[in-house]
Recover the amino acids of this structure.
């Protein structure tokens, strides 16, 4: 080196801050933009998620339209429009053209978005692959103007760059429209836009979705209910599961004067008595100053929390779908013969409350020789990728489905005509990556998922076993139906009954068979469609009296034998 400076000094001159936008520009695969097909789906997913969150926060029944236009080979225009509350003018550039900008990161309440990355990442991907700006139109009310923006992201500074801004005419009273040009690939299948929107309609039965694919006719997923989801409320973290590092940070930042008041103020479900009990179990004085607590004391506090019985976290911070609406969503979109659903009581991981829900649609026109279909959801958002690395998939594989009437090989998904829905609702879903495609393997979450699956499995097992029993009974009845004419003919030969009396015996046996059919119908079994026709043939009216007037008269003893036989049949 010319100036003989140490190498470390020269290396230090090359080091500088990295913009978060620059980082994700080079690592866009972390956000779900690792191939054209997935990128197109992720763009629509982020826009629809934003629309759903906005509508629900404003207590508006969502009506969302999605249009995908193929501009040229591997180039698409995506237009997503909603009827939400709109966005105020000064916030539009920051929301759509600045990464890690949002209002939900610090809130402990259920929402689809968490990190402030989603839609701005879509804008960044659009900018990278086509060089075109994002177009945003938003209106907050009928008496307010609609604002139109053309935006780009300055990735070096992670700041919005406004290309154009103007007031435009828009017929909607309120809402937001996003237009993005991007590189993509459109295909149908399990991981397609079509499947994502269908699954969104199942898990959000209060939503109306209108979808215009690049090719084909427009699709509409109509809402199944007018009931809006319960709006979640923000809460404090629950003491169970809080980690020592987070606890130390909270102790340093709190403005509480005593340890007891700190526990009451910073955590949910902690009143004066519970806080005092935690202090006693931790061998710490309630009037200890929080800022004076060192690492060893914090460890004691963690142990004291574990020893103290604290009631479960409040559920008003979470908005689960509910068993009835989950089943309605399944019935609306999946043709099956048996449906059931369950919502588990709330649990806690790392101090964050969560609720697991599960539902089953069994039978119908679903294939019986393939593995079951799993629909995974987190805060009402479908998870279409990375199924193998998700806690939901692990829980399904580790559940013994043979107990519930399905075939299953060791370490594999069960096989049968079934769609399984699993939904986690939480104030903070532990995704395995920023792309939010799989749920981390927290033991508390896996345990709750298995319990929900077992509850649904027991209901399914009852139905499957009942169906098998009824099938067996129906088979026996088929044998009886086959031999009814032979019984009549045998009696005719043995005790010399007439043709009319033979038909009477057959009619009585048919009545007995009809009564057994009524018992089967009470448990919901669908009989052989040929049954009614066959029974009608067996139970035809007796021949007219003149058909047997010419028959030879039997002696008295024969008549008595015949009468005894008929009485027995009756």
């Amino acid at each position: 080196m010319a100036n003989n400076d140490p190498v470390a000094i020269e290396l230090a001159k090359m080091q500088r801050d990295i913009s978060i936008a620059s980082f994700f520009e080079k690592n866009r695969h972390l956000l779900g933009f690792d191939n054209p097909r997935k990128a197109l789906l992720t763009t629509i997913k982020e826009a629809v998620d934003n629309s759903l969150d906005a509508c629900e926060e404003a207590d508006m029944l969502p009506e969302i339209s999605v249009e995908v236009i193929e501009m040229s080979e591997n180039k698409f225009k995506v237009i997503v429009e909603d009827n939400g509350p709109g966005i105020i003018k000064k916030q539009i550039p920051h929301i759509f053209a600045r990464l890690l900008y949002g209002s939900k990161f610090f809130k402990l309440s259920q929402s689809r978005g968490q990190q402030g990355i989603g839609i701005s990442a879509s804008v960044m991907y659009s900018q990278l692959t086509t060089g075109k700006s994002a177009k945003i139109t938003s209106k907050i009310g009928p008496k307010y103007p609609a604002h139109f923006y053309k935006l780009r992201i300055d990735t070096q500074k992670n700041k919005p760059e406004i290309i154009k801004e103007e007031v435009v005419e828009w017929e909607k009273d309120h809402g937001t429209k996003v237009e993005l040009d991007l590189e993509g690939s459109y295909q149908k299948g399990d991981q397609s836009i079509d499947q994502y929107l269908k699954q969104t309609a199942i898990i959000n039965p209060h939503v109306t979705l209108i979808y215009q694919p690049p090719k084909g006719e427009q699709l509409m997923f109509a809402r199944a209910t007018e009931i809006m989801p319960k709006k979640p409320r923000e809460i404090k973290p629950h003491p169970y599961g809080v980690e020592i590092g987070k606890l130390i940070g909270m102790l340093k930042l709190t403005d509480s004067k005593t340890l007891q008041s700190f526990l009451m103020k910073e955590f949910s479900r902690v009143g004066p008595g519970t806080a005092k009990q935690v202090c006693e179990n931790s061998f710490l004085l309630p009037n200890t100053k929080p800022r004076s607590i060192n690492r060893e004391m914090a460890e004691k506090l963690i142990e004291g929390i574990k020893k103290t019985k604290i009631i479960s976290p409040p559920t008003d911070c979470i908005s689960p779908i509910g068993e009835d609406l989950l089943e309605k969503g399944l019935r609306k979109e999946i043709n099956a013969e048996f449906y059931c659903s369950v919502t588990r009581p709330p649990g806690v991981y790392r101090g964050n409350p969560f609720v697991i829900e599960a539902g089953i649609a069994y039978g119908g026109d679903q294939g019986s020789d393939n593995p079951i279909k799993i629909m995974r959801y987190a805060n009402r958002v479908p998870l279409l990728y990375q199924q193998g690395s998700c806690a939901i998939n692990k829980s399904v594989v580790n559940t013994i489905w043979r107990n519930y009437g399905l075939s299953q090989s060791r370490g594999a998904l069960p096989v049968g005509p079934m769609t399984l829905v699993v939904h986690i609702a939480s104030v903070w879903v532990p995704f395995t990556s920023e792309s939010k495609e799989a749920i981390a393997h927290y033991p508390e979450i896996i345990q709750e998922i298995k319990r929900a699956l077992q509850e649904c499995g027991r209901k399914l097992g009852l139905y499957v076993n009942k169906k098998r029993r009824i099938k067996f009974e129906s088979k026996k009845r088929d044998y009886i139906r086959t031999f009814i004419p032979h019984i009549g003919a045998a009696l005719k030969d043995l005790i010399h009954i007439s043709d009319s009396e033979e038909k009477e015996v057959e009619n009585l046996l048919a009545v007995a068979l009809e009564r057994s059919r009524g018992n089967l119908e009470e448990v919901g079994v669908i009989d052989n469609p040929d049954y009614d026709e066959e029974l009608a043939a067996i139970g035809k009216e007796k021949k007219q009296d003149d058909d047997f007037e010419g028959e030879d008269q039997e002696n008295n003893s024969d008549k008595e034998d015949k009468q005894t036989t008929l009485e027995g049949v009756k």
Observations:
- The first helix runs from residue 7 to 14.
- Residues 20-221 form a domain with the Heat Shock Protein 90 fold (CATH 3.30.565.10).
- The radius of gyration is 34 Å.
- Residues 101-107, 520-570 have pLDDT under 50 and may be disordered.
